[in-house]
Specification:
The structure is a single chain. The strands form 3 sheets. A two-stranded antiparallel sheet has the order 1-2. The protein has a two-stranded antiparallel sheet with strand order 3-4. The longest helix has 23 residues, at 2-24. It contains 15 helices and 6 strands. The protein has helices at residues 2-24, 45-54, 61-70, 91-100, 116-123, 131-138, 141-147, 171-185, 188-196, 201-214, 218-233, 241-248, 258-261, 285-292, 318-334; strands at residues 35-39, 81-85, 106-110, 161-165, 301-304, 312-315. It has 3 domains: 13-100, Dna Ligase, domain 1 (2-Layer Sandwich), CATH 3.30.1490.480; 107-185, no CATH class; 188-334, no CATH class.
Amino acid sequence: MKYIFLLAGILGLIGAASLYLIAFKANTNSSEEGIEIFIDEAFDIKTLANLLHDQGLVINTSSFNWTATLMSFKKTSVKPGRYLFSETLNNRQLISILRSGRQSPVNITFNNVRDIEELAGRITNNIQLDSLGFLNEIQNDDLLDSLGFNNEDILTLFIPNTYEVFWNISFESLINRMESEHNRFWTKERLAKAEALKLNPKEVYTLASIVEKETIANSEKKRIAGVYYNRLERDMLLQADPTVVFANGDFEIRRVLNKHLEIDSPYNTYKYLGLPPGPIYMPDINSIDAVLNKENHKYLFFCAKADNSGLHAFAETSAQHAANARRFHNWLNKQRIYK
């Protein structure tokens, strides 16, 4: 009888040791870059184990399943998300992470986009939400009304930058985040500068989008912003070529011709006074701040210099501008740029 109890004790210790090894023995591969795992739904545990194995993380699925049973880790315990594993883990550690939903964030970056359709593709590039779903949601009239935007100016909600979010972020959470970032960007100082210009944030953003498309040189942006502001103040047509390109929808245009100016569109600032109904591009933050800190001068005109520098010649009078424009048009002809 003594030996039976002894044997039972030994077997018990062996069993306990086995259970300990199952739970605490390392059971994942490791990688300096990290092993990226995407869980898009609450899989049952065996399916999850196979998924983790197939994606190169879990070594032994049987021990993972055993530990899941011991830890009462069930389908309802699985938290969807994007997880990045770089260190070796045992089953218990791995299950604890998956149960708690301690997923790794991703970056979303957007800038240099022309419209909300292009933004939809860029903003969803690194997250579970697809671009079509985003586009359908963001163009919903009830949502736009609740946010205080419309289809023409909704792009002004989005401040170009890189943001850290979770892969499975919902559309609602994403828009809430963008609204918070928008409000954070428009500080009291920026709002005060906009008010001093008699412009609201949407109008500043829209004007900045024109400035953005006029020059690649940050050094010129404040001066160009000053030109357009002077024209607005004098109730002059802006006559901004980038708005005509946008209105025509032909973004290969290199030389705006009279035929392009004929289009009847609220974005054609050769026909309609004031700013267009929304931005023609997503301006970078430098362009937005250039408008808010526009240069004070008397220039009313500018055109590209005839030297391929990408810089501009500025003028106070139409006669000065005509001379600058003639030099530029002659240069275009020499370069055989006719459209």
